[in-house]
Amino acid sequence: AVVSTQSTGGESQTNMEFMQETDFRKILQLEENYIKEICDDIIALKPDLVLTEKGVSDLAQHFLLKAGISAIRRLRKSDMNRVARAVGGQIVHRTEELKESDVGTECGLFEIKKFGDEYFTFLTKCKNPKACTILLRGASKDVLMEVERNLQDAMNVARNVMLDPFLVPGGGAVEAALAHRLNEKSKAIQGVGQWPYRALAEALKVIPKTLMQNCGVNTIRTMTNLTAKHATSGPTWGVDGETGNIVDMEEFGVWDTLQVKSQVLKTAIETAILLLRIDDIVSGVKKQSDIDAEKMAGKFQPAPQEPAEE
């Protein structure tokens, strides 16, 4: 009898022909011996946990389980890299190349927990982790996305503070202080040269005014009080984002990163300069009203049409 089987996968293709009934049994025995050799290479290092990007056959799970080794399969490559950085291990592609130094020994606890209908694997109590995972949970997908966005913003703020460790008062205090200084500077300039300073000062007041509008207070009166505070009491006064009151941000404890504030001002001023450099906007399409006017004046000439091909 001749039995032909073909196994097609994403990375390999195998074609086998069996001439006798015992050939299939031999193939199974060869497969078992190969899997046992791979498992023996892993067992020789006595790990507690094995993680792989590919699958783990039932036979391999049997050999590993007899040796007291847990196996986690089908991890993403990015997750494998994070696990290796967290436990101090190395990713190995061939079991015969395994060394004692490749085994990560810095993980203190491996456990599996169930949240809802899904199981999650945790590697915790690591000695010197260079990677970690933050698990977010929410009542719905929208809530979860909002929590993730807030966390991302908070992490970016922490990153900016680490790279450029300088803070400025928040609550519109910086914008109000800059507007006050620009107005004072404009008073010392004669003629039209003072108007750019005043225009920039009015533009900067948009931030504290927006905070006041969000709180529902009288914008004009509160802005006048804020300007008076900056003229008499110092540059740290801003708007409480919850009540709309004028408070000292140094005592209130609201700060912004200098890196973000400086970048916002640079981008705004560069955009304004770019717009001022544009003398005129030339449109490549004529308006219908202009075409009609040219027709009435006898100046309009339609574009010549190409003869149709026969």
Quickly describe the structure:
The chain is α+β, with helices and mostly antiparallel strands and 310 residues long. 48% of the residues lie in helices and 14% in strands. The chain is built from 11 helices and 10 strands.
Molecular structure report:
- The chain is α+β, with helices and mostly antiparallel strands and 310 residues long.
- The chain has helices spanning 21-43, 58-66, 77-87, 141-163, 173-187, 195-204, 206-215, 219-232, 249-252, 258-276, 288-297, and strands spanning 3-8, 13-18, 49-51, 70-72, 109-115, 118-124, 167-169, 237-239, 246-248, 255-257.
- Strands 1-2 form a two-stranded antiparallel sheet. A two-stranded parallel sheet has the order 3-4. Strands 5-6 form a two-stranded antiparallel sheet.
- Helix 1 (21-43) crosses helix 2.
Protein topology:
Layout: E1 3-8, E2 13-18, H1 21-43, E3 49-51, H2 58-66, E4 70-72, H3 77-87, E5 109-115, E6 118-124, H4 141-163, E7 167-169, H5 173-187, H6 195-204, H7 206-215, H8 219-232, E8 237-239, E9 246-248, H9 249-252, E10 255-257, H10 258-276, H11 288-297
Parallel strand pairs: 3-4
Antiparallel strand pairs: 1-2, 5-6, 7-10, 8-9
Highlighted features:
310 residues, alpha+beta, two-stranded antiparallel sheet, two-stranded parallel sheet, 10 strands, disordered N terminus
